[in-house]
Design goal:
With 344 residues, this protein is α/β, with parallel strands linked by helices. It has helices spanning 9-23, 27-34, 42-54, 82-96, 113-122, 143-150, 174-187, 203-215, 229-241, 252-264, 298-313; strands at 69-75, 99-105, 127-131, 155-158, 169-172, 193-197, 221-224, 246-249, 274-279, 292-295, 322-325, 328-330. Helices cover 40% and strands 17% of the residues. The longest helix is centred in the C-terminal third of the chain and has 16 residues, at 298-313.
Length: 344
Amino acid sequence: MAGVTEPGPDARTARLADLAQQARVSEATVSRVLNGKSGVAAATRQRVLAALDVLGYERPLRLRQRSAGLIGLVIPELTNPIFPAFAQVIEQALAGHGYTPVLCTQSPGGATEDELVDQLVERGVTGIVFLSGLHADTTADPARYARLSGRGVPFVLINGFNERINAPFVSPDDGAAARIAVRHLRALGHERIGLAVGPQRFVPVQRKVAGFAAELDGRGVIRHTLYSVAGGQAATAALLDAGCTGIVCGSDMMALGAIRAVRQRGLDVPTDVSVVGYDDSDLFAFTDPPLTTLRQPVRAMASAAVDTLLEEIGGNLVQHTEFVFQPELVVRGSTAAAPAVGGG
């Protein structure tokens, strides 16, 4: 019986070609990286390592780096696709700088944000990234973040500015997103427009409400609910009762609930009611109908958060302010011209 053999020259050549194509570099560059040779830019080397991972090849032992340290990533949950989308980009950026990310997810009845932070600090993390955490809740005590600073742990906060917290923040322009969504619906002829958003205590919700109300001079209809499919469905039922033909949602998950509520009335999206979401993670181009939404600039925001945190870790002066990123309207099949008055 024949024994196991090493890959022959043809197999090695095929692997080099695959990696070169995936990383968009030459086969010679791939070979230099795999053999640990110098003369390859750090960004290029990272692309080759990423290609190894994407194509499912095991990294050679010589390429396995010693971690520069642990970085905690605290996020609310994984059921909403926008959070894994952020987590993936943040983890990739951290890995590119040699850091090992530690993902901490909250869940009902599980560890609280404070407990997760205690565990991370006990493990000796070099820094922490908070995504949509208690910093975004206006009823939460911001003193917890001052205590974290006092423990010598740098951190950065994504989504939800709080002027009482002395730290760098990274946010999308939630107010602008609501205004853009309203303008899109009004351009399609919708006059009665509703907003389905999460609980009032959250900063991103307050900003969406402010932008929505300002754009409609207070004539829009607003319903607060939970950030979930069921929440979006419940809020939309009330908005339909109020005669809305255009509905702006605080998240894409809520928008799925909105579409469900419309269909339960025997109506059609977008013929009878137009729905706009918010976030635009990859799945929502493939819903039925494909979802018109405001895209959070996830990659730019996540990269800015990581870069800012690493500057803090390096002892460099970082402005403790809010870095705001502009959302982008992505028009798909869930919005259309308003129905004619009287249904004719």
